[in-house]
Amino acid sequence: VFTDPFLPCGQILAEHLSLPSVFFLRRIPCGLELEATQCPNPPSYVPALATGNTDRMTFLQRMKNLIFDLPRFFICDFVYQPYATLASEFLQRGVTVSQLLSQASIWLMKLDFVLEYPRPLMPNMIIIGGVNCAHK
Length: 136
Prior knowledge:
This protein is α/β, with parallel strands linked by helices. It has one domain (2-127). Helix content is 38%, strand content 10%. It has five helices and four strands, in the order E-H-E-H-H-H-H-E-E. The chain has helices spanning 9-17, 32-36, 59-69, 71-91, 97-101; strands at 2-3, 22-25, 106-109, 125-127. Strands 1-2-3-4 form a four-stranded parallel sheet, with no helix packed on it. Helix 1 packs parallel to helix 4 (71-91). It is a single-pass membrane protein. Keywords: Glycosyltransferase, Membrane, Transferase, Transmembrane, Transmembrane helix. Its main location: membrane. It is found in: Membrane.
């Protein structure tokens, strides 16, 4: 199943039908793709989007980065709770959205390290930058 994990309905269906899934995305706002793939994302190394920090941070900048990173856990739980409930009812077993997304076979990531900071990626994450670029 070729799907976008931002709304995990396609992954719920793929899990129900026991089909492999391929995800195509740029980024999930709360970093769920990094949690689902068990990709390292330490806030002391990877700068948060709204902080303006670089990959060379002082101690205070690292603390600011950590403070900006904390609310995403609560926001993510609040936003994806209806999907976790739906998946648990439909699949008839307890499941979280992170567990659903961790079943993906391949992640096609629209990342470009010219615009973002390099970070470790897992072997099933394939970078396909420049997808939305057009010749002018």
